[in-house]
Amino acid sequence: MPSPEKLRWAKLRIAIVAMSAIAVLSVLAYLLSGGTWLKAKAYLTTYIPDSTGLDPDADVQLNGVKIGMVESVRLTRAKDPNRVVEVRLKIEEEFLPYIPEDSITTIDSANLLGDKYININMGRSPQPVRAGGELRFPPPSSFMQNIDLRQFEAQLRTIDQIIQDIQAGKGPLGQFVMS
Question: Is it the case that residue 141 has pLDDT exceeding 80?
Fold first, then answer.
């Protein structure tokens, strides 16, 4: 049986190794998280008509530079169709002075798989947004409202007739494709 003094030194060495391992793991976890755990955070809100594909923990970018993440995505009870979904953004407080209060938010795709993120497009106001403030989301474009449906239908019929002529082998292009 080892002496009490050797046991004490063995326990001390084990304690030192364990504390060193915990310190190394803590530093590693901090660095792998991006080193933002201890930075002050600010919250902003934006309202959107539809959150298709936008998840909590999605990135928030300021003109393409990551400055935070989406905290929550939830339904509101608003009657306005452009304010159906509330998106709460958690950003690093140090970036607030760089976000003018007239900035707008958009939902963009990060890749072909459709991972969505919020992009804040900087406005021109000299006044920065305040913590807890709201950023505007532009209303959806009125593309379908500006289309003359009768003219659009006539153009579709013309295109359909051209495709049918090609499939039937009519005309030089149809003969070329069918031969």
Answer: no
Q: Answer yes or no: is pLDDT of 143 > 70.
A: no
| Structure confidence at residue 34 (pLDDT) | 65
C-alpha–C-alpha distance, residues 40 and 25, integer Å: 23
Q: Quick check: helix, strand or coil at residue 78?
A: coil
Rounded Cα distance between 118 and 103, Å, is: 12
Bridge-based pairing of strands 59-62 and 41-48 is unpaired
Joined together, the tokens standing for residue 46 give: 């934006």
Identity (one letter) of the amino acid at 42? A
Phi, psi of 30 (to 5 degrees): -60, -45
Q: pLDDT tier at 174 (50, 70, 90 boundaries)?
A: confident
Cα distances from 114 to residues 18, 55, 63, 107, 152, in angstroms, run 43, 11, 19, 11, 30
pTM of the full structure: 0.64
If we measure between CA atoms, which residue out of 96, 90, 39, 48 comes closest to residue 69? 90
